[in-house]
Amino acid sequence: MSDLLSSDHRQKYKPLFDFIRNAFPNEGMIPLHEPRFSALDKQYVNEAIDSTFVSSVGAFVDRFERQIAEYTGAGYAVAAVNGTAALHLALLLCDVQPGDEVITQALTFVATGAAILYCQAKPVMVDVDKDTLGMSADALRNWLENNARKEGGGAINQGTGAVIKACVPVHVFGHPCRIDQIRDVCQEWGVKLVEDASESLGSFYKGRHTGTFGDMGVFSFNGNKVVTTGGGGVIVTNNERFAKRAKFLSTTAKQPHPYEFFHPELGYNYRLPNLNAALGCAQLEQLEEFIEAKRELAHTYRDFFNLAGMPLAFVEEPLECRSNYWLNAILTSSEQEKTALLEAALNESVQMRPVWRLLHELPMFEGCAHDGLTVSIELSRRLVNLPSSVVQRP
Ligand SMILES: *Cc1c(COP(=O)(O)O)cnc(C)c1O
């Protein structure tokens, strides 16, 4: 019986798998997202090795930070060992203390919530907008109006008495959320804003780069992101004090001195190695080319789903945005449809995946406060990511 069903589904989705096979040059399995490397990447990595500066100091780290600041238009960029560490540092810089509350969204990768727990703070999860997949400014405002009061320039949760220190919206799959509206709400309530822009390097909202609206923005350079350093992250900010302190805390809080080792407080070994930064410098030179290819792929997906007559709707970039289309996504008509498609993809050696399990359903976030998450729950039942690697034309 189940064999019959799956063969039905194989027929039903055949045009989609044919389309995907045709879009990618891969012979066997088609991965969800694989990195692209060129001679330039190898050249810069070799230069780093030849310089002997492979660890946490070196010319490529400074150059990488300058390139990121220039590209995003941020005043400062501080590289870190990965995006999760960068998020942790950013929250520490917002003075997030044990017992404080931090507002985020449930529809995100676990790292967003983990960084809040590293600070021993309590996550509060508000709903997302259906069109952007990112935090809803209305949901944020409603939650604050229903639960918080303004006091001493900040926000206090009236139920728990805790300080609501920061807000961490996410630009999901590279699609910008309504970050200007979110910023207005945060400013009105005296809540610090850290953008989890891990997935959105190259994505602009109303002409301005994501990650540069808040007090800080964080990007990731993991192997599956739009450009990679192997592992890496960065904090961008316009606040010089934050930038200096991010660098200090990420380099074991060591006071600069030619030979003395003095650490006035507890720091972290969160600095990006020069070897990884070398790869990052080369990858950044190719970023616009990658995004052009990704946007072209997204447009062919969009046109395919508009014509295909399948119960699958392509998720398009929000209005007034340029998305990097890091991961292409579709909304299936139902949870059953999603499962059928994922099973068929497994059978076809095409990597598709459902959106992450919502954070409030994970054991580590059990009992966390949330606003009902109506849209997040609906999306999590139906969202599927499609193969999205850069396809290089000869
Ligand atoms: C990738 C990612 C991170 C963390 O990045 P790492 O570099 O893997 O630590 C954080 N948040 C989101 C939404 C991500 O996609």
Q: How would you describe this protein?
A:
With 394 residues, the protein is an alpha/beta fold. Helix content is 40%, strand content 17%. It has helices at 2-23, 39-51, 59-72, 83-93, 110-118, 137-147, 179-189, 240-250, 274-285, 287-308, 335-347, 374-382, and strands at residues 76-80, 101-105, 122-126, 148-151, 154-157, 163-168, 192-196, 204-205, 208-209, 216-220, 233-237, 312-314, 321-322, 328-332, 353-354, 369-370, 383-386. Strands 1, 2, 3, 4, 5, 6, 7, 10, 11 and 16 form a 10-stranded mixed β-sheet that branches. Strands 12-14-17-15 form a 4-stranded antiparallel β-sheet. The mean pLDDT is 96.
Structural class: alpha/beta
User: How many DSSP E strands?
Assistant: 17
The major sheet is characterized as: 10 strands, mixed
Give the DSSP E fraction (strand runs of 2 or more residues): 15-25%
What sort of overall outline do the alpha carbons produce when their principal axes are compared? Answer: globular
- Overall mean pLDDT stands at 96
Measured between the Cα atoms of the first and last residue, the distance is 45 Å
Low-confidence stretches: none
